[in-house]
Amino acid sequence: MTNYKINEFFETIQGEGQYTGTASIFIRLQGCPVGCSWCDTKHTWEVENDLQIPIQQVFAKTVETPQWASLSANEIVEHIKLQGYRSKHVVITGGEPAMYNLIEMCDALHAHGFSTQIETSGTFEIKVPAKTWVTVSPKINMAGGYKVLASSMARANEIKHPIARQSHVEELEELLNTAPVSEGTLIYLQPISQKIPATKLAIETCMEKNWRLSIQVHKYIGIA
Ligand SMILES: C[S@@+](CC[C@H](N)C(=O)[O-])C[C@H]1O[C@@H](n2cnc3c(N)ncnc32)[C@H](O)[C@@H]1O
Ligand SMILES: Nc1nc2[nH]cc(C(=O)O)c2c(=O)[nH]1
Ligand code: SF4
Ligand SMILES: [Mg+2]
């Protein structure tokens, strides 16, 4: 049985990528070694054993903390019911969720009528059922030294690449040449941290290449 270390568990509107606008339950798993300098969830990076808390305290969080609770797949489903969430779509993020085998969690959610999606950097082998929507946000030359796997690029239903500079666009193009995506995979550019030059670059590049724009809608409207 897999135990999942959960940093956050909440219901909101998916603010990124193809599912933008979809009412969703978010499960944010603890742990990520990739080390993106601009990461907006740095509190999830380290897994410290003495920071384990009961799941009720995860639901009660009002600020971001590195504390986490451990739940099995069946307990995750139970807690979704107990919370009275009404969303039918579950987004598994982190941290880096692909560090975990996600098959049990996704199977349990599917068995209870939920659709699933993962947000991943693609640096670990992706272990999810065939019907899970996979968002790969490739990270190139980050501090942790991890590389995007060709198998992650091939599995992706959408690529969502964070950019701030022209060199980030070129890095994505090079990656797409060496590690191709499957037919029909959507390509999104996401401006890093809502910066105006990054947003302008993303808009212009999407128009030029027929790619899609993903802005972090939740940050503009002030929701989680
Ligand atoms: C926090 S990450 C967690 C999941 C996984 N580790 C990953 O990187 O995909 C979720 C999404 O937020 C994006 N992201 C993180 N920090 C960001 C920032 N400052 N600006 C724009 N996107 C950001 C990531 O690229 C990824 O698409
Ligand atoms: N509303 C909302 N949408 C999101 N899409 C991806 C997120 C993430 O942190 O993975 C995220 C998030 O943190 N909040
Ligand atoms: S891979 Fe994701 S969680 Fe990890 S540092 Fe980068 S953006 Fe943050
Ligand atoms: Mg986020």
From TrEMBL:
Radical SAM core domain mapped to chain residues: 19-224
Binding site for [4Fe-4S] cluster: 32, 36, 39
Magnesium recorded as keyword: yes
Enzyme kind, highest EC tier: lyase
Gene3D superfamilies: Aldolase class I
EC number assigned by the record: 4.3.99.3
Subunit text: Homodimer.
Protein name, as recorded: 7-carboxy-7-deazaguanine synthase
Organism annotation: Psychrosphaera ytuae
